[in-house]
């Protein structure tokens, strides 16, 4: 490749470099540093709180049915990003179902 061809390639590449000017800014896609990269929205928390309410309610009435609903909503909460609420709801629902299975013959 001679010098003239090289200069022509360099100049043509400068004409094409417009992606940075027309692309969206990266600030919109960055997460804030004070949140530590973790962002939870209200809908994520809502699934977690519904799962927690159902799992606690499963101790008082229809433990199999309401406990299963608590497990389902707990899994949904974990998938949406509310890991702590989802895990707590899963554990409480499983405990309520196991206790009801052991105490059902005596009631």
Blueprint (SSEs and pairs):
Layout: H1 3-16, H2 19-22, H3 42-57, H4 63-80, H5 83-103
H-E order: HHHHH
Q: What is the gyration radius calculated from CA atoms?
A: 27 Å
Q: What class do helices, strands and sheet pairing give?
A: mainly alpha
Largest sheet: none
Helix content estimate: 55-70%
pLDDT averaged over residues: 77
Unreliable spans are none
Strand count: 0
Distance between the termini: 92 Å
Q: So how many helices? A: 5
What general outline do the C-alpha atoms trace? rod-shaped
Strand content range? under 5%
Summarize the structure in short.
With 107 residues, the chain is mainly α.
Note down, in words, how this protein is organized.
Helix 3 (42-57) runs antiparallel to helix 4 (63-80), helix 3 (42-57) runs parallel beside helix 5 (83-103) and helix 4 (63-80) runs antiparallel to helix 5 (83-103). The protein has helices spanning 3-16, 19-22, 42-57, 63-80, 83-103. With 107 residues, it is mostly helical. The longest helix has 21 residues, at 83-103. The model has no long low-confidence stretch (mean pLDDT 77). It is rod-shaped.
């Amino acid at each position: 490749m001679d010098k003239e061809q090289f200069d022509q390639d360099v100049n043509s590449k400068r004409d094409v470099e417009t992606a940075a000017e027309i692309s969206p800014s990266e600030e919109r896609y960055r997460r804030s540093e004070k949140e530590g990269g973790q962002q939870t929205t209200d809908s994520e928390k809502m699934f977690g709180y519904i799962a927690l309410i159902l799992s606690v309610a499963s101790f008082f009435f229809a433990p199999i049915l309401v406990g299963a609903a608590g497990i389902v909503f707990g899994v949904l909460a974990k998938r949406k990003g509310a890991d702590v609420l989802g895990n707590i709801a899963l554990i409480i629902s499983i405990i309520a179902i196991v206790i009801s299975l052991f105490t059902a013959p005596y009631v």
